[in-house]
Design goal:
alpha/beta, Rossmann fold, 2 domains, five-stranded parallel beta sheet, three-stranded mixed beta sheet, 13 strands, globular, NAD(P)-bd_dom_sf, oxidoreductase activity, acting on the CH-OH group of donors, NAD or NADP as acceptor, oxidoreductase, 6PGD_dom2, Mannitol dehydrogenase family protein
């Protein structure tokens, strides 16, 4: 099959069976700026808006893309070359389908001073600014507070009109809007953080307060920061995904593959209006926290259970981890015995049912989600996804054997060598510090716990003792033997 280069002009030429926009993209006008145009946003938030547009609605809510990292320039070039269209390829265990979405209409220049981004957010048609900048991108200390000492934050505080961070750009744009009497916009985080809206509010307001207390007060009083829970497994794009799109008849420079599941639960707190995303499957709820807790503590933490063990055993994908009896048994035992009992049910779903659901999703062999991608930035993901359950169980006097083993697996992985002797290439913003701690912990296990992330845990014998014991056993017995021994415990 000859692949058709993707563009607005060629939509009519795409193969039969590829779903394309049912709206005239020429009639769309902007309503949102989204910062962080990775795969997840395009498979998730952009899709919900696209389907709403398919119903003839939300035509004035189109997305303007933006990035604040130099590497975002390449993504901009790719997407602009195809009129900001994206091919979404849904991979169920039994079939593959393709859909081209068109809810994004522009991608701003990526600049050191973010001048174009600031100017665009300051225009009155922008009513929502949303972000997917990863859970580690919100400038938090190990204790979860705003990190005012970070070099990026200090630079933005010194140069508020030409900031280097997304948050500095938001503050600068809001200052222009306030001064022009244009009013605020809503700021919406779509990252995997408990209380992501509250964290985004704290980051933006705290940064503003470093230079302009009155502006900080205005933002805090007028802008809204809705909390949300987002869920869809979206692998990275590589040669295999590009070839898959071509085999479907589409020459797309940036296709996205994703599972056949999406969920978006949003707090209905928008100061300048919003699209009716609930018409296309999203849920507006006052109980976002319960959905967040279930997803973050079970799915996101579950990913870490699998990925660290999988890296050590040279298992390349998450579905491959689920096929491995020892890894799967470890995952299921920790999920059901240690995590699920501390998670509340949400409408239509108990924690046990959710554990089964995510097990099925993780096992989908059509989703080539690498253990390396899932294990990336463990310094944020363990502290954000795994540690809260550890702390809650310890407060209740409950054991943490499996979760302590999960931390020991992460420590063992950070040595940087798999059990077959191959190297684990740097996979964390703090890789060198993690590797140094992990190597020292080979002979002195408590060394791993001396890192700031373990404040309050290192001195708790109910956690420290099993952690050290598991880490020693991983060193002497190997990962598979230890996982099997743990799963056989009653």
């Amino acid at each position: 099959m000859t692949a058709v280069p993707l563009s607005t002009a060629t939509l009519k030429d795409l193969p039969e069976g590829v779903r394309t926009p049912r709206y005239d993209r020429g009639n769309l006008t902007a309503g949102m700026v989204h910062i962080g145009l990775g795969n997840f946003h395009r498979a998730h938030q952009a899709w919900y808006l696209h389907r709403l547009m398919d119903e003839g609605l939300a035509q004035d809510w189109a997305i303007v893309g933006a990035g604040v990292r130099p590497s975002d320039s390449a993504q901009r070039d790719r997407l602009l070359s195809q009129d900001c269209l994206t091919t979404l390829i849904e991979l169920s265990p039994t079939e593959t389908s393709a859909e081209v979405i068109g809810s994004m209409i522009d991608f701003l220049p990526v600049e050191d001073d973010n001048a174009s981004l600031i100017a665009r957010m300051a225009e009155p048609d922008i009513r929502i600014v949303s972000l997917t900048v990863t859970e580690g991108g919100y400038y938090r200390t190990s204790s979860g507070r705003f990190d005012s000492s970070h070099d990026d934050i200090r630079r933005d505080a010194t140069n508020p009109a030409s900031p280097c961070t997304a948050f500095g750009a938001i503050v600068a744009a809001l200052k222009l809007r306030r001064d022009a009497g244009l009013g605020p916009f809503s700021c919406m985080s779509c990252d995997n953080l408990q209380g992501n809206g509250a964290i985004l509010r704290d980051t933006v307001v705290s940064l503003a307060r470093l230079t302009d207390g009155a502006l900080a007060d205005w933002i805090d009083a007028n802008c809204t920061f809705p909390n949300s829970m987002v869920d869809c497994i979206v692998p990275a794009t590589g040669p295999k995904e590009l070839e898959l799109a071509r085999n479907l008849g589409i020459a797309d420079a940036a296709p996205v593959t994703h599972e056949n599941f999406r969920q978006w639960v949003i707090e209905d707190d928008f100061c300048a209006g919003r699209p009716d995303w609930d018409r296309t499957g999203a849920t507006f709820s006052d109980s976002v926290h319960a959905y967040e807790t279930m997803k973050i503590r079970m799915l996101n933490a579950g990913h870490q259970l699998l990925a660290n063990a999988g890296e050590l055993l040279s298992i390349e994908t998450i579905s491959g981890c689920m096929e491995d009896p020892a890894v799967r048994a470890f995952f299921e035992k920790v999920e059901l015995d240690e995590i699920a009992p501390l998670v509340a049910a949400v409408p239509g779903m108990t924690p046990v049912e959710y554990a089964r659901l995510i097990g099925t999703r993780f096992a989908n062999p059509a989703i080539v989600d690498t253990t390396r991608r899932v294990a990336f930035d463990g310094s944020s993901r363990h502290t954000g996804f795994v540690h809260p359950t550890i702390r809650d169980r310890l407060e209740r006097g409950l054991d943490v054997e499996g979760l302590a083993l999960a931390e020991a697996l992460w420590a063992r992985m950070c040595i940087g060598i798999r059990e077959d002797g191959t190297e684990i290439v740097a996979n964390d913003p703090h890789w060198e510090a993690l590797r140094a701690a992990a190597r020292e912990a080979k002979t002195r296990p408590p060394a791993w716990l001396e890192q700031p992330a373990y404040d309050g845990l290192r001195s708790n014998e109910a956690f420290a003792a099993p952690f050290c014991a598991w880490l020693e056993r991983l060193e002497t017995e190997g990962t598979r033997s230890v996982l099997t021994a743990f799963a056989s415990q009653r």
